[in-house]
Amino acid sequence: MSEPAQRPESLGTVVVAGLANLAVAVAKAVAGVVSGSAAVLAEAAHSVADTTTEVLLFVALRRGARPATVQYPFGHGRETYLWAFIAATVTFVVGAGFSIFQGIDAIQSREEQIDPLAAYLVLAVSFVAEGVSLLRSVRQVRHRASRWRVPWLRIARYTPNTTLKAVLLEDSAALVGLVLAGAGVALSELTGSPLWDGLASIGIGALLLVVATTLAYSNVVHLVGRSAREAVREEIHRELSAVPNVRGVDELMTLQLGPEDILVAAKINFAEEAGRGEIEIAADEAERRLIAGNPAIRYVFLDPTRRTR
């Protein structure tokens, strides 16, 4: 899939997830108040955090897609990671903090009365909505995995597109959180004790802590400056080595400039008998092959050398 197609697809995934989270957040908040369940209120906070995150991810994709300028010759792709990091922080503070607080408050309260009907209904509808959003994210990851012929879970773990990773993790965490909330409500209803509802709320908060920490780390490493994935580097090395008059790749460096932008710099060892014109033709051929093989490669810098024997 070409770069122009990948960005709208990521954007569409974020928009769908954001709209789903917004509708679910309102429903959960109403159900949490009606039912009196701390776990359902924690899930409402979870959806609010996810909705805010989706807004920030939308901003990340829009700002990161701005074209290169004289001041920013390699574009604004890495700004995507900054906004995605802020989104992870929001999940950490808003979602996890509120959920854990609600859980502790529920456990300390001995008079919590839960009316489970509204809670069950909203949790069931929310599960369907979150499931639809997750399926869309998984479908996008599978499409990318087919390009590299690797398991889709590996792509989900190592993809430089942290906005896609954020949606995938948040939707997965949402489904787990809904199961925890449902279990907490059911056990509190059966036992008459708010302990289980409170523990479910704390569990949801802990889950959000894990998600937020994972996403924050993923974005920080790319903000610092990370190379392209190993599979991409290996493919680049193979393509360069296959160019006529190239005798070897002495040094290869890559840099992930953004979710869909890669910079390649390589020191190429050309054949001793190759003339200047042949080297220029070979360099052009190398760049053409790299970009044709992977449209995410935006910049190619080659340093021709001749290794002395």
Keywords:
Alpha-lytic protease prodomain-like; Alpha-Beta Plaits; three-stranded mixed beta sheet; 309 residues; 9 helices
Q: What is the strand and helix layout of this fold?
A:
Elements: H1 3-35, H2 38-64, H3 79-108, H4 116-148, H5 152-158, H6 162-191, H7 195-224, H8 230-241, E1 246-258, E2 261-270, H9 276-293, E3 297-305
Parallel strand pairs: 2-3
Antiparallel strand pairs: 1-2
Helix pairs in contact: 1-2, 1-4, 1-6, 2-3, 2-6, 2-7, 3-7, 4-5, 4-6, 6-7
How do you describe this structure in short?
This protein has 309 residues and is mostly helical. Helix content is 71%, strand content 10%. The chain is elongated and about 90 Å long.
Q: Work out the helicity level.
A: over 70%
CATH homologous superfamily classification of the largest domain: Cation efflux protein transmembrane domain
Strand line-up across the major sheet: 1-2-3
Radius of gyration: 24 Å
Query: Which oligomerization state do the chains in this entry correspond to?
Result: single chain
Contiguous uncertain segments of 5+ residues: 1-5
Spatial separation of the terminal alpha carbons: 42 Å
Structural class: mainly alpha
Average residue pLDDT: 86
Total count of domains:
2
Strand content: 5-15%
Number of H- or I-type helical stretches:
9
- Listing every helix as H and every strand as E from the N terminus to the C terminus, the arrangement reads HHHHHHHHEEHE
CATH architecture of the largest domain, by name, is: Up-down Bundle
